[in-house]
Each structure stands twice: as C-alpha cells, then as structure tokens.
Q: What sequence folds into this?
C-alpha cells in the first residue's frame, strides 16, 4: 500500500483541512505516516483511520523520552485503536532529543510517495527542515498554508500553487528539475 508522509507545525491551531486531506488520502487506499508531536501531527493522528495509520514516536510506549511538545496521549490512543506505532523511531533515549526528532521524521518519510505539511505560518522552520529531507529523497512536497511558505532548508527552487487530493495547496518545485504531478 503506498504511503503519504504528513507533518507540520506544532503550533497549528485546529484546522478542518487536516482531517479532510487525511481522509481523502485514506479513501484512495493510501497509508498515513506521521510523527508524534502536538499540533499538525496530533490532528493527523486523530483524523486517520487506525487501519492504515503508522505513527513514528520519538519516545517509548511508557512516554519515556517525551517532552512538552509530544502528543503522548494522542499516540497512546491511536495505539489503543489499533494503529501501528513505531516507538523510539528516532533511536534510543541516549540520542539527544533534537537528533531523535529529526531521525524520527526521516524514518516517517522514508519510502513514502509524497510528503504533506500543514503549516501555521510561512516560516515553520522545523517542518521545513523535514521538507528538505523529503525534497532530497525525491518526494513531491506539498504544503497547506495561508501564504507561500519559506523554502525548505538547503533546497533551491520555489513554491507553486498546486492541488493535492483535490485541495488547493503549495507544491515545491526544485530548481532545474521538472516535478511530476501527484
């Protein structure tokens, strides 16, 4: 089953578009890969059907290794609903938190057909760093944001208006590379 990676701002206020896009992806028979943070991640977790949801947690099943931005309750609830949870997806607790979070995000997007980000504003730095990994992996990258986001860190190109599963958004167009449409 093809998978779509979802991520975004921890500061994202409740946004109906998150659930609409997640349900449209699952209705097309695709799995959802997502991280374990508050904001966008927890909204994706809440909206997704457990049968095709894979959550990549930077903490253990007991919550060990979590921090104030972790959505421990949402991830535990998803596990109880039958979702697949990859505990300590960023590596063991001996790895510093920032490293575990980035490694968790890289694990979540690995092998996915595309990455989709829900941004609270144009400069959601952490999410855009992860978008840079997706661009480097050759994945189409889409962003839902009221205004054009900043460029993913270390990536040359620009954002262009696009559509993802029928919803208007932005798509990253790498410099000198023709991007396939999703």
A:
């Amino acid at each position: 089953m093809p998978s779509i990676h979802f991520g975004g701002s921890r500061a994202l206020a409740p946004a109906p578009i998150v659930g609409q896009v997640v349900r449209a992806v699952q209705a097309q028979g695709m799995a959802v890969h997502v991280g374990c943070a508050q904001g966008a991640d927890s909204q994706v977790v809440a909206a997704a059907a457990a049968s095709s949801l894979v959550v990549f947690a930077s903490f253990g099943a007991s919550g060990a290794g979590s921090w104030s931005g972790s959505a421990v309750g949402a991830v535990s609830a998803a596990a109880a609903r039958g979702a697949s949870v990859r505990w300590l997806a960023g590596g063991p607790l001996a790895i510093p938190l920032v490293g575990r979070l980035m490694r968790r995000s890289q694990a979540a997007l690995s092998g996915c057909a595309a990455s989709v980000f829900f941004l609270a504003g144009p400069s959601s730095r952490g999410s855009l760093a992860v978008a840079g990994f997706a661009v480097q992996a050759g994945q189409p990258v889409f962003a839902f944001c009221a205004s054009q986001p900043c460029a993913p860190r270390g990536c040359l190109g620009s954002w262009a208006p696009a559509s993802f599963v029928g919803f208007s958004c932005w798509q990253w167009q790498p410099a000198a590379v023709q991007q396939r449409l999703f």
User: Anything to note?
Assistant: The two ends are 16 Å apart (CA to CA).
